[in-house]
Amino acid sequence: MSPDSQEADVPFGLQQHLLDTTWRDSLCWLSDLIIEEIQVYDDGERSELHLLADNRLRDGYKAYGSEMYTWSPEERRRNVLEEL
Question: What does the alpha-carbon distance between residue 23 and residue 84 come to, in Å, rounded to a whole number?
Answer without folding.
Answer: 13
